[in-house]
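User: For my dataset I need records formatted as: sequence, then structure tokens, nothing else. Please produce one.
Assistant:
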Amino acid sequence: MENTPLFTNDAIVLGILMIALGFVFYTSSQKEGFWKKFYSVVPALLMCYLIPAIFNSLGIIDDDTSQLYFIASRYLLPASLVLMTLSIDLKAIFNLGPKALIMFFTGTIGIIIGGPLAILLISAVSPETVGGVGPDAVWRGLSTLAGSWIGGGANQAAMLEIYEYNPDLYGGMVLVDIVVANLWMALILFGIGRNERIDKWLGADDSAITNLKTRVASYAESVTRTPSLPDFMIMLAIAFGAVGIAHWGADGIANYLTSNFEVFNDKKSTLASFASTFFWMISIATAIGIILSFTRLKSYEGAGASKIGSVFIYILVATIGMKMDLTMVFDNPGLIAIGVVWMAIHAGLLILIAKLIKAPYFFLAVGSQANVGGAASAPVVAAAFHPSLATVGVLLAVFGYVVGTYGAILCTILMQLAAAG
């Protein structure tokens, strides 16, 4: 029987998370002393992620008994995307060039080849770890990781259906997914605090990203005003009105597809992921934000629209951190080792290509998370560089949904060959 966390009431859990976020922001704002030195080493965003993870690991709170991640990802995430997209400069986004796509597809290839290479490497040390026959074959279970790490939850479910992995063993693969993906995200967030040094080592030209930040900052400065109560209420109306439209549209599209086309009901179909309401919700919310950026509502950036969006993002970061149990690393060391080697190959390929094409760390981080984390975390990572860049994360995550099942199938075929060899 699993241990019950100390606090299961979501009102209390939310209070704990908000106190943790307040603590991080207060201490990180100190201009001298211990905390200034501490945050020069450990990024504040990483602490917003790690403190809830530590609370979860100590049994104080638990994502399994909480609905906060669901609420943050379904309500606060689309609201934040609308608010942070209000001031978007589409021309400057397009001027970022092809490196964003190159790094995204590099990340995808890293997952595709990483799986079979991890099997080959681990089999040389521990053949039984990558063994199994029939529905118990480890490569079948790893197919669900490929689906999750290229596309997302819908692609993961599709791979479970296609390759018919033993459901009784599936929990072990979910464990690997959670542990390895969250450890990798922690490393990504750690790197954000050192992105200038990393860019210098990569020899990267980040002028297009800097130009985008500057243009957005200049516009915000030109319309900056002291926000009034009506400003706050109007911005919340824009954000959550858009969330309502996004949910309504997502439900309508998903229901229409599943009601009229059998292929979208077939979990083994490569098109099944397009029946995901989360996919359509994020896509519609982003589209609404882009459309509104061409209207007078864009001026609400001067009243702090992106700052409110950032508040929502940080709450989401805390709820994502709450999903991480650091003690789980030791629960199934063999499978965790496969996942770690797999992710290391993904990361190594990204670093190699970034070095070759001199891509900024931003493209490496967001390209990776658009694969591994999907639409829930790619915008978070992108917004950590600057709120105006959140849309880049969403757009790349959408690509992940599109290629997820196809890439996972190719990866699984290679893993089956590697396991047989």
